[in-house]
Design brief:
Blueprint: H1 2-6, H2 11-29, H3 34-50, H4 57-61, H5 69-90, H6 100-107
């Protein structure tokens, strides 16, 4: 997400990172049940909306920065929209229940 924000305005980067964000989100959602996936999406979207500085060392080392003012708001809005659309598209594939074994692993 930080790469997408830092490279906002670069059409090649936008297309590349949109696919990466959607694929990564699908993997994350498939580790949740339908009950917890929505909460996870909400939490991710909230973190993006609150982001006002870069945190990834690789992005910082590349000397990139977040866009200014309205461009940053637009970038955040588009990324949150992408995440919500991706969630809606995969909602039917998310398991209703992850199973006791997976729940046991998470609690241990």
């Amino acid at each position: 997400v930080e790469w997408q924000l830092a490279l906002w305005g670069n059409k090649f980067a936008i297309a590349r990172y949109e696919k990466m964000i959607a694929n990564t989100l699908k993997k994350v959602l498939m580790q949740h049940s339908i009950f917890t996936a929505k909460l996870k999406v909400d939490k991710i979207c909230k973190r993006i909306q609150e982001k006002d500085k870069l945190e990834s060392k690789k992005v910082i080392e590349s000397k990139l920065s977040l866009p200014d003012g309205d461009k940053l708001k637009e970038a955040k809005k588009k990324i949150v929209s992408l995440i919500r659309e991706t969630y809606s598209g995969y909602k039917e594939e998310i398991p209703s229940f992850q199973g006791l074994r997976q729940l046991w692993k998470k609690s241990a």
